[in-house]
UniProtKB/TrEMBL annotation:
Belongs to the metallo-dependent hydrolases superfamily. ATZ/TRZ family. This is N-ethylammeline chlorohydrolase. InterPro entries: Amidohydro-rel, Metal-dep_hydrolase_composite, Metal_Hydrolase, MTA/SAH_deaminase. It comes from Yoonia vestfoldensis SKA53. Keywords: Hydrolase. One of its GO terms (molecular function) is hydrolase activity, acting on carbon-nitrogen (but not peptide) bonds.
Length: 435
């Protein structure tokens, strides 16, 4: 229940960089920094490893690992792309098998808290629970026909809306009642183009009633903007404002295709942005996150399934911002490190993570390989981690004082089994897609 981790270089967004530090951990909490070990504590030599707060990956759909490496050359998102496996093909068992692969990758890449939502949300929750990390889980709700969506047609399907909403609410009833302090639930309508006005109103009411944040996609494609303008005569951001969803309790992914009025509107409302620079860049896009931040929005980082590497996401966020700013140095390593840790912890509700290594915080931390050449030399810590670090550098991951990854292997679940099972499911899905 108590350990003393020493000979580590501590890098914390609030406490700064300590080249030779130590942490005392008791009952899952950081009890002291720089103290001497007490009798009875397990003493662990970090061997010079860099020790960071666990990363917070704020927007994912873990079963979509099944299309990685394939969909990137075909379309911006699987749900809108013909010829790729679709989520409505999956059984609950298949969803859990694929989710286990996605969750395992995120955990081993240093994410100690994730946001994950998709169909069959109970399967996502069970996958996250098996590995032991913190997870905010939601059921993806939409009332646009999914089979037609991949072919560019938006057809209202009230039965699908009812079924997905029921699954989402069942998830909340079941998992909130369990009292698992590492698994929390969220509200997750898919997007303004795939949810009717009535469905969006339903989520505004649910958010007001439950106090839960609403996680959704917003302005992620030109198709979405065109569909909402055709249907409503409004931009997607205007529609969410009109139904009462544009608020500090809205957590919106992507936010790429926004005009200046929408940026001001989102910023004034204090919306939380899930910035996905890797996925955006994959189809040639870059979100106006600096303008959104300056307008008042809160910025967090995510990998959005196609990569679990939050180090790459931090690096790409800087590159994308500088590209949009015509090569001005408008973003730096320390800022994006905060986006991936403490800023995300503060922006999201309903979890216990702090995103720091401060005394009194949950002991959610990661260790980086002390022998990795790409992590040397270390001067201020932030620069080398963000500009040169990699998920492959993560060797050990702790959540609430429990080692969930040791020497790059998950401690609760067999890695080989997870990979083998997911490979089989994915192969069968792609055979069906090509038939």
């Amino acid at each position: 229940m108590a350990c003393h981790l020493y000979n580590v270089a501590l890098l914390c967004p609030t406490e700064g960089f300590v080249s030779n530090g130590s942490l005392t951990i008791r009952d899952g909490i950081i009890a002291a920094r720089g103290a001497a070990p007490n009798p009875g504590e397990t003493v662990i030599d970090g061997k010079g490893a860099m020790c960071l707060p666990g990363l917070i990956n704020t927007h994912n759909h873990s079963p979509l690992m099944s299309v990685r490496g394939m969909v990137e050359d075909l379309g911006f998102a699987p749900a809108y792309t013909p010829g790729v496996p679709q989520g409505h093909w999956l059984s609950s068992e298949e969803t859990q098998i694929l989710a286990r692969l996605g969750v395992m990758e995120m955990l081993c890449a240093g994410a100690t808290t994730i946001v994950d939502y998709y169909r069959m949300p109970d399967a996502l929750a069970r996958a996250a629970e098996a590995f032991g990390l913190r997870a905010m889980i939601g059921g993806r709700v939409m009332d646009a026909d999914t089979a037609s969506l991949a072919n560019g047609r938006f057809l209202h399907d009230p039965k699908l809306g009812e079924a997905t909403l029921r699954a989402a609410l069942d998830l909340i009833d079941t998992w909130d009642a369990k009292g698992n302090d590492r698994i929390s639930t969220i509200l997750a309508p898919h997007a303004p183009d795939t949810c009717s006005r009535q469905m969006l109103h339903t989520f505004a009411d649910l958010s007001a009633k439950t106090g839960k944040q609403v996680h959704t996609h917003l302005a992620q494609s030109k198709m979405e903007v065109a569909q909402v303008r055709s249907r409503e005569g409004l931009s997607p951001a205007e529609l969410l404002e009109d139904v009462g969803l544009l608020s500090p309790d809205l957590v919106a992914a992507h936010c790429i295709f926004l005009d200046e009025a929408d940026i001001r509107r989102i910023g004034k409302a204090g919306v939380v942005i899930n910035h996905a620079p890797i996925g955006n860049a994959a189809f040639g896009a870059a979100a106006p996150v600096i303008a959104l931040r300056e307008a008042g929005a809160k910025i967090t980082l995510c990998t959005d399934t196609k990569s679990a590497d939050m180090f790459e996401a931090m690096r790409m966020a800087i590159a994308a911002a500088r590209w949009r700013a015509d090569m001005e140095f408008v973003l730096d390593a320390k800022t994006v490190f905060g986006w991936g840790t403490v800023d995300a912890a503060r922006a999201l509700k309903g979890h216990a993570a702090s995103g720091t290594l401060s005394v009194g915080s949950p002991a959610d931390l990661i260790l980086l390989d002390p022998n990795a050449p790409n992590l040397r030399p270390v001067i201020d810590g932030y620069g080398i981690v963000v500009h040169s670090g990699s998920a492959a550098n993560v060797t050990d991951v702790m959540v609430a004082g429990e080692w969930l990854v040791k020497d790059r292997m998950p401690t609760r679940v067999d890695m080989d089994t997870v990979i083998r099972d997911a490979q089989k499911v994915a192969e069968n899905l792609w055979k069906r897609a090509s038939a």
